[in-house]
Write a structure and sequence with these properties.
Number of helices: 9
Structural class: mainly alpha
Strand content: under 5%
Shape: globular
Number of domains: 2
Helix content: 55-70%
Number of strands: 0
Distance between the termini: 57 Å
């Protein structure tokens, strides 16, 4: 009896130690670098970021600062997506929320829900995307954008019909820009997921409702 109890205690202790080590490891994966510990390259990357965006680095850029040149290149792509893309902001935010949901990326969701609503995406569309459902009553442009991103993510390809819808509305530039937007936010979601980047305390991530299959 004592022998069995001792084995059970050892097993329990081992599980606790494993859990604690996993929590510690997750917290230390790619920690936010304090400014006083920046290398010369990191200082330059942050200075360039702040000069362009008039804000301090955050979220995925804090993760990517461990590779400063990578962070700078990603920032430049993000700057283009905001200022030079042929895809209107409301459609871009629809695509971003789709990707955040698909990658279970709470931080991207938390950051972009307010931006999506500000850009004109309806609350009902946001709610549908949050449970993995195609929003109802979309405009033609919203429907074409959803179809393009959904097919690209699910099928690794888009149909001729879906391609032609985006090309007809936004030209070849729009096709390239929407493809690039999809890839860029998959990239950011990957960075955050690998780092196990945490939401700010009290922030709301993706709703944890019952999933609805995507069409």
């Amino acid at each position: 009896m004592v022998c069995h109890l001792r084995k059970a205690l050892y097993a329990g202790a081992a599980l606790i130690n494993l859990a604690l080590s996993q929590v510690t490891h997750a917290a230390d994966r790619l920690p936010v670098i304090p400014a006083e510990q920046y290398s010369a390259e990191q200082k330059q990357a942050v200075a360039e970021y702040e000069a362009v965006r008039k804000a301090h680095i955050f979220g995925p850029f804090e993760v990517m600062l461990h590779s400063p040149a990578m962070m700078t290149n990603a920032r430049e792509v993000g700057d283009y997506m905001k200022a030079g893309s042929a895809i209107p902001r409301n459609l871009a935010e629809l695509a971003i929320l789709y990707i955040a949901k698909d990658w279970s990326q709470d931080y991207v969701w938390f950051q972009h829900v307010p931006l999506a609503l500000k850009a004109g995406l309806s609350q009902s569309h946001v709610d549908a995307l949050g449970i993995g459902q195609k929003p109802a009553n979309m405009s033609d442009d919203e429907d074409a954008t959803y179809a393009f991103v959904n097919e690209l993510v699910r099928n690794r390809q888009v149909s001729d019909q879906t391609f032609d819808r985006i090309k007809g509305r936004f030209g070849n530039k729009g096709v390239v820009d929407l493809t690039s937007l999809t890839a860029f936010y998959v990239h950011l979601s990957m960075q955050l997921n690998v780092a196990k980047f945490k939401l700010p305390q009290g922030a709301a991530g993706i709703p944890r409702h019952a999933e609805v299959g995507k069409p």
